[in-house]
Amino acid sequence: MPSPGRFRVLLLDFFGTLVDYDPSRVPTTTPTTETFCREHGIEVSADAAVATWDAAFGDLDAETAVSMREYSMAEVGRVAFRTLLGREPAEALAVAGAEAYLDDWGRGILAIEGMGEALDRLGSDARLVIVSNTHASDLVQRTLRGLGVDGLVDAVVTSLDVGWRKPHPAIYEAALAAAGVDRSECLFVGDSKTNDYDGPRAAGIASMLVAPSSVVGVPDAHRIGSLVDLPGRVAV
């Protein structure tokens, strides 16, 4: 583990690190999406609507896996409503429909137990910058406000705003710009080995992986079980 007292900025992943969420992007219930479809004369069952959105995500994910370019919820909406309507949807419909679906999915985002206290402790001596892959640029900020912890975070860098998702080098450079300090003074913390451990290290940034058990290629000294363990593991 890098020496204590070295880090002036903590670069924190969001989904899976600060909050629990459903990575499948399939909401448990879809009341907002169902209401939206009814109001716009789109006759579709809840299961069929969810399957259509899931397929739209899958199509765009396949493209992003190669390019690492981030796509927006509006793009997902265009693909989904193209299927549901059998024609190209109006942009306003795609955007509003995407917001409805995001509202349903977002209800499953929950704070990691002890997250607020951990951020408060970490932020007493360091700047906290969230660096997240997301298809909606305001989703992280909106969620932080809803959880009442937005005042504990100094900046948010999203893949949609940067245009590239982790582990593309551009998002780490954007994070460093937001941090405002040399990369040697930053520590990246997150739950994805590829995005939050290997990616930052390739960019010259120290990193720690959030994982409940040992991970091949990650020394145990570079691993914590949860974000709440971080204040006790690294002095900032």
Model description:
The chain has 236 residues and is α/β, with parallel strands linked by helices. The strands form two sheets. Strands 5-4-1-6-7-8 form a six-stranded parallel beta sheet, sandwiched between helices. Strands 2-3 form a two-stranded antiparallel sheet. The longest helix has 22 residues, at 46-67. It contains ten helices and eight strands. The chain has two domains: 9-20 and 110-233, Rossmann fold, CATH 3.40.50; 31-106.
Summarize the model shown.
This protein is 45% helix and 13% strand. By secondary structure, it is α/β, with parallel strands linked by helices. It has a 6-stranded parallel β-sheet, sandwiched between helices. A two-stranded antiparallel ribbon has the order 2-3.
Strand line-up across the major sheet: 5-4-1-6-7-8
| CATH-level-4 superfamily name of the largest domain | HAD superfamily/HAD-like
CATH topology of the largest domain: Rossmann fold
**CATH architecture call of the largest domain:** 3-Layer(aba) Sandwich
Instruction: Tell me roughly what share of residues is in helical segments.
Output: 40-55%
Uncertain runs? none
Q: What integer value in Å does the Rg equal?
A: 19 Å
Keywords: Hydrolase
InterPro entries: HAD-like_sf (IPR036412), HAD-SF_hydro_IA (IPR006439), HAD_sf (IPR023214), S-2-haloacid_dehalogenase (IPR051540)
Pfam family, one: Hydrolase
Protein name: Putative hydrolase of the HAD superfamily
